[in-house]
Specification:
Layout: H1 4-14, E1 23-25, H2 27-33, E2 36-41, H3 52-60, H4 64-68, E3 71-74, H5 78-90, E4 94-98, H6 104-112, E5 116-119, H7 126-137, E6 140-141, H8 148-164, E7 170-174, H9 179-191, E8 196-202, H10 207-214, H11 237-246, E9 249-253, H12 255-269, H13 279-285, E10 296-301, H14 308-314
Parallel strand pairs: 2-10, 3-4, 3-6, 4-5, 7-8, 7-10, 8-9
Antiparallel strand pairs: 1-2
Helix pairs in contact: 1-8, 3-5, 3-8, 5-6, 8-9, 9-11, 12-13
Length: about 325
């Protein structure tokens, strides 16, 4: 389990290298959901998602020898950009395995930051390919979610939420591999344990639901979904252990739920968010869990790296 010192250290490390993204009120959407609703706008983060937080904290704890070997990771897109961005700041070479159907905008961004992209298979097979390359080249793994330094980096979001909405009752967080909710739930439960943390997965593949049902981490096969950013085929062991203690409820949303949320964000809030980034708001608007009237609720908008051609199709 992470400590407050781990989170404080991560905040100091990433300070000045990432944005302190805003929390904004969403009055109209709050009226629709019967809550006092706030949006944590992490899609305005550098690289367009929360991922640089964890990547920067991880790189800060690597030795010079580990950096010199070069980095390897696997990602559908946002972690890839986060690692590529952090690697460029540290003048380190990075190689990222991305699924063949990864949004081209994300692939272009990763290459733009100077990383090598290996297109291979799907989200269900990309980790195996990354392992193969890591062993062949002797590269240093930067895991997208099952790493204490990565999780501590993501936990800094939880601290910012508590500072901006100190009386928050509920925080909704999308779940892919679990690093994001592992970090945020730790920060919240360490500082305001009465606040409930709600994890949101897509019904195309709910790895946290599956892990809780089995009592251990299990590998699943992900189906197609517009929420490609939460498409990990398994939950990390560390995030799973944290979630068992710190995550109060789990819910699932459909692609239709997410599209409705995307439309509301564009029309009412003038915010462009990707599918995975809108999952938390989708759960609130679709009333996937009963919330008390006028509860103070924060929805984390985790990323905005949407392929515009795909967005046109969804809308």
């Amino acid at each position: 389990m992470l400590t407050q010192n781990d989170i404080n250290e991560a905040r100091a490390i990433i300070h000045g290298k990432v944005h302190r993204t805003p929390v904004v009120s969403a009055t109209m959407l709050g009226e629709v959901s019967g809550t006092n609703l706030y949006l944590k706008c992490e899609m305005l983060q550098k690289t367009g998602s929360f991922k640089p937080r964890g990547a920067l904290n991880k790189l800060a704890h690597l030795s010079a020898a580990e950096k010199a070997r070069g980095l390897i990771s696997a990602s559908a897109g946002n972690h890839a950009q986060g690692v590529a961005y952090a690697a460029r700041l540290e003048n380190v070479q990075a190689t990222i395995v991305m699924p063949e159907n990864a949004p081209q905008a994300k692939v272009n961004a990763v290459r733009g930051y100077g990383a090598e992209v290996v297109s291979f298979g799907t989200v269900n097979t990309m980790f195996d390919k990354a392992d193969e390359i890591q062993q062949a080249r002797g590269l240093t793994w930067v895991h997208p979610f099952d790493d204490p330094f990565v999780v501590a980096g993501q936990a800094t979001i939880g601290m910012e939420i508590l500072e901006d909405v100190p009386d928050v009752d509920y925080v909704f967080v999308p779940i892919g591999g679990g690093g994001l909710i592992g970090g945020i739930s730790t920060a919240i439960k360490l500082n305001k344990p009465s606040t409930q943390v709600i994890g949101v997965e897509t019904n195309a593949g709910a790895a946290m639901h599956a892990a809780r049902a089995a009592g251990e981490v299990v590998r699943i096969t992900r189906g197609d979904t517009i929420a490609d950013g939460i498409g990990a085929p398994f939950i990390g062991q560390l995030p799973f252990e944290i979630a068992q203690k710190c995550v109060d409820h789990l819910v699932m949303v459909t692609d239709d739920d997410i599209v409705s949320a995307l439309k509301m964000l564009l029309e009412r809030c003038k915010l462009l968010v990707e599918g995975a980034g809108a999952a938390s708001l989708a759960a609130i608007l679709a009333r996937k869990i009963s919330l008390p009237s006028n509860a103070r609720v924060v929805a984390l908008l985790s990323g905005g790296n949407v392929d515009l051609a795909r967005l046109k199709q969804w809308l």
